[in-house]
Each structure stands twice: as structure tokens, then as C-alpha cells.
Specification:
Blueprint: E1 3-8, E2 24-25, E3 28-29, H1 30-38, E4 44-49, H2 55-59, E5 67-70, H3 79-89, E6 94-99, H4 107-115, E7 122-126, E8 137-140, H5 141-153, H6 159-164, E9 169-173, H7 174-180, H8 193-208
Parallel strand pairs: 1-4, 1-6, 4-5, 7-9
Antiparallel strand pairs: 2-3, 6-8, 7-8
Helix pairs in contact: 3-5
Length: 209
């Protein structure tokens, strides 16, 4: 098995009152949008949840082929904890780590990230100002798992800290990504009701076009 997709769905939702992955966009949960974009590219899909209480809810919307994993409780709640849990359970040599609330993730970008990850420990999108996108990046599973564990054990709980411990990281300029996704919708997160309305408007616009 070469490719795993790890989708982080354990984070709280301040504005929606429940897991963001279950919020409906055009009658489909956000996490379904993400899965639909990657399921034909990867060999397995792992969904990382905060606790057991989320399992019955996500069981209703996830495809049978996906695996639900509850985050390791040995560390504070954070995206790195979810990534660590996913990496620990991933069977693929390479893993893409994704948030559950990016419905317009580009399948072409996912394929490109995997293609250029061969021979390096990570491929991470990077903006011209230096900001990186660690939750839409591909990692060599074994190396990233080790880095995530070391970062968590030293009290550094963000994805950037994990990446800082990795050697041989390839950064992919967003200027290149813009050639694939001119509107850069792949990085659009749904954090608020306004974001959801914008996403709905974008869908309608695309349908009209």
C-alpha cells in the first residue's frame, strides 16, 4: 500500500455546535466532499475523531471502506494530535493529511503532491510570504510519525513544529498550485456560517457556468 489519506475531523466547531465535518454543503456533509475528491487517488481513508461520541454520527455518513480512529488521549487536543493518531494507523508509505472542512480540495493537487513526494519526507504547499499549508500536504508516513511524536513529547503542539523536525522537505509554491486551481479554492475552509454561504454561492456560480 502506497497512499493513505488522513482526514482530521476531531476539532471543535465554535459556530456550528457540532463537528464541522458533518455540516451540510449542498446537501452533502463537508467530509463527504473531501472524501469524494481523494478516494480514487489513495489506497485507504482514515478519519480521526476527537472521542467515541463522534463515532455514531460519522458512521452514518462515511463510506464503509473508511476507518474511524479516535485521537490519542495522551496529548492535548490539537491538529498535531490528530495527525499523530492518523500516521500511527496509516498503512501507506506516504500519507496526505487533510482537514475535514475544505470541500473544494483539488484532486489534481492531491495527485501532484503524491507524485513529487517520492524521495523526500514531505511536500508542503508554501505561499510567497512563507506561510505553509501543513494540513494539505503529503508526508512520508514513517518519518512524519517520528517527528510528530517527538514534537508532542516536547510540548510543541502544532504541525509546523513537526515539519521543523523533518529533514528533506520539498516546498511547493502556491504560484504553481494556482496554475492548477486559479481561484485557489482548494484552501477554502468552512469556519463560519458566512464561509458556508460563500461556498454555496460558489457552487451555484459553477453550476450556472
Amino acid at each position: 500500500m502506497d497512499k493513505s489519506a488522513i482526514i482530521l475531523a476531531g476539532g471543535p466547531s465554535k459556530y456550528f455546535g457540532h463537528g464541522k465535518g458533518l455540516i451540510n454543503l449542498a446537501n452533502e456533509p463537508l467530509i463527504t466532499w473531501v472524501i469524494n475528491k481523494v478516494q480514487d487517488i489513495v489506497d485507504e481513508i482514515i478519519v480521526c475523531l476527537k472521542d467515541d461520541s463522534q463515532i455514531p454520527l460519522y458512521s452514518q455518513v462515511l463510506p464503509e471502506a473508511s476507518r474511524m480512529i479516535v485521537d490519542d488521549k495522551g496529548f492535548p487536543e490539537c491538529s498535531l494530535r490528530g495527525a499523530y493518531t492518523g500516521l500511527m494507523n496509516a498503512k501507506g508509505k506516504y500519507s496526505i493529511i487533510l482537514p475535514c472542512d475544505t470541500p473544494f480540495i483539488s484532486g489534481r493537487l492531491v495527485g501532484l503532491l503524491f507524485d513529487i513526494a517520492v524521495g523526500v519526507n514531505a511536500v508542503v504547499p508554501r505561499w510567497p510570504n512563507g506561510y505553509i499549508e501543513p494540513l494539505q500536504a503529503v508526508y512520508r508516513t514513517e518519518a512524519a510519525l517520528d517527528a510528530a511524536k517527538r514534537s508532542l513529547k516536547t510540548g510543541k503542539y502544532n504541525m509546523q513544529a513537526m515539519i521543523a523536525l523533518l529533514k528533506n522537505v520539498r516546498y511547493l509554491s502556491t504560484l504553481v498550485i494556482k496554475e492548477i486551481d486559479p481561484e485557489m479554492c482548494t484552501f477554502m475552509n468552512i469556519n463560519t456560517p458566512l464561509d458556508l454561504k460563500r461556498a454555496e454561492a460558489l457552487i451555484k456560480k459553477r453550476i450556472l457556468i
